[in-house]
């Protein structure tokens, strides 16, 4: 933490480059948090049991994805956590999308997510559920929810989506788009009441 990389880091990166693309970074913690945000939108396809493209063809799901992301950005900002750009991922572009009016941002987000691949993409959380294995929801949206709790920050949406993913893991029953909307709307109402 806070120390420059030593020669060992360079050696490890050079070794890994033999097998796949690897880059050396100076701030691994900010990269870890950026990786969380890259995977942030895996939770909603996991709830409905559909591909990323099918899920985010629905503007309702895009609006919720943006609200979850916005809440996540609020948490890391209040905690003073820095996020770093990664190859092919610019943090400020995603953050900017969460700051735009939802009605304008949702179709843009939908366009991005539905054009990720010609093949259906099933996020890692959904793939784990389909295999009957615990997902990594606690390390993505759940990590933001946990950090919010530890720092007395309201993180109702990411807390609720984490609970819902665990419910789907346990019951093996996916939710309809409308059910996800209702559950997150209830959580959002609770959040608003906290500030009244």
SSE layout and pairing:
Layout: H1 7-17, H2 28-38, H3 43-48, H4 52-56, H5 59-79, H6 91-99, H7 102-114, H8 124-130, H9 141-150, H10 156-171, H11 177-194
Helix pairs in contact: 5-6, 5-7, 5-9, 9-10, 10-11
Detailed description of the structure:
The protein has 196 residues and is an all-alpha fold. Helices cover 65% and strands 0% of the residues. Helix 5 (59-79) packs across helix 7, helix 5 (59-79) packs across helix 9 (141-150) and helix 10 (156-171) packs antiparallel against helix 11 (177-194). 32% of the residues are buried.
In percent, how helical is the residue content?
Answer: 55-70%
Structure classification: mainly alpha
Helix count equals 11
The count of β-strands is 0
Order of SSEs: HHHHHHHHHHH
Main sheet characteristics: none
Low-confidence stretches: 192-196
User: Roughly what is the average pLDDT, rounded to an integer?
Assistant: 89
**Computed Rg:** 18 Å
Choose one word for the global shape.
Answer: globular
Terminal CA distance reads 39 Å
Brief summary:
With 196 residues, the protein is mainly alpha-helical. It is 65% helix and 0% strand.
Give the tags.
196 residues; 65% helix; globular; mainly alpha
């Amino acid at each position: 933490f806070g120390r420059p990389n030593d020669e060992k880091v360079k050696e490890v990166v050079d070794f890994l480059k033999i097998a796949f693309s690897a880059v050396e970074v100076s701030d691994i913690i900010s990269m870890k948090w950026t990786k969380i945000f890259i995977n942030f939108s895996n939770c909603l396809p996991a709830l409905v049991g559909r591909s990323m493209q099918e899920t985010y063809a629905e503007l309702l799901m895009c609006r919720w994805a943006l609200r979850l992301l916005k809440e996540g950005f609020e948490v890391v900002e209040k905690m003073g956590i820095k996020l770093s750009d990664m190859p092919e991922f610019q943090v400020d572009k995603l953050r900017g999308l969460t700051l735009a009016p939802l009605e304008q941002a949702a179709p843009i987000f939908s366009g991005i997510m539905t054009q990720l691949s010609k093949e259906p993409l099933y996020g890692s959380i959904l793939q784990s559920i389909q295999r009957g294995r615990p997902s990594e929801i606690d390390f993505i949206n759940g990590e933001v929810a946990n950090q919010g709790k530890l720092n007395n920050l309201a993180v109702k949406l990411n807390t609720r989506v984490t609970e819902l993913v665990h419910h789907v893991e346990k019951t093996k029953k996916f939710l309809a788009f409308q059910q996800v909307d209702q559950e997150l709307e209830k959580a959002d109402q609770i959040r608003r009441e906290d500030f009244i």
